[in-house]
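HUMAN: You are asked to prepare a plain-text protein record giving the amino acid sequence and the backbone structure tokens, both parts labelled.

ASSISTANT:
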Amino acid sequence: MSQDLNGDGQHPTLGLLEQLRAEFSELWATSSRLCHRVDVLLRELANPNLHDIANMSFRVELWDRHAKQIRWTIAAAGNVFIAQAAFDAALAKWPHERFTLRQGIRLIREHPRA
């Protein structure tokens, strides 16, 4: 004993199945697009010409006003001379902020001096 609830002669189950199929088709299309985008990004990461941030050991860092946390890494460089130029440029732009130039945990320069 089935009951016609939508008044057009079709059972409500058929309408639900059509909606489910439409939703699944949309989900499949979205999934395919996302897989393609992830694949493109992974290929870009595999590019040997990308800069390797891990090998840029010199960092210019902006600290919070209490000097407890790094707020922002201003620059990362693999060369100390470039890092020092970035440090000087940061000081010129924001002279009242606290900056450090470090290589790993080794402190090279800081402003203001402690």
Notes: The CA atoms of residues 29 and 78 lie 43 Å apart. The first strand starts at residue 58 and ends at 63. The two ends are 86 Å apart (CA to CA).
